[in-house]
Write a structure and sequence with these properties.
single chain; 5 strands; 4 helices; Thiol Ester Dehydrase, Chain A
Length: 118
């Protein structure tokens, strides 16, 4: 059984770099002026950026780990400057549960699971 955790405070630079790497430059992620007029009122993280941060916890402990399957939901937005607790629990190899929670209000930003092979 593994229990991995970290604190991450996302920045606009994180969102911008992920947009460059992924090609997902949707203005809701990278344009503060555009996003100010959205329902969120500011830029929000790419969902896959959050998954990548969680997957990074696994790879740091298990280099060469492979994702066989994953399922995820993004119940609440992730904003810059708000600390996030990243959590991975389960068996490696095997199934893990993954969560990202905004620390200030305990809102779940990411809830998912993955099957991990070594």
């Amino acid at each position: 059984m593994v229990e991995l955790a970290a604190i991450w405070c996302p920045s606009q630079a994180d969102f911008d770099l992920f947009a460059q790497v992924s090609g997902d430059d949707n203005p809701i992620h990278v344009d503060p002026e555009f996003s100010a007029g959205s329902a969120f009122g500011r830029t929000v993280s790419h969902g896959m950026l959050i998954y990548s941060k969680l997957w990074g916890l696994i790879c740091a402990q298990h280099p060469g780990a492979q994702s066989v399957r994953q399922a995820m939901m993004f119940p609440n937005p992730c904003f810059t400057g708000e600390e996030v607790r990243l959590e991975v629990t389960g068996d490696i190899p095997g199934a893990v549960a993954m969560r990202a929670v905004r620390i200030m209000d305990e809102a779940e930003l990411f809830v998912g699971e993955a099957e991990v092979a070594l």
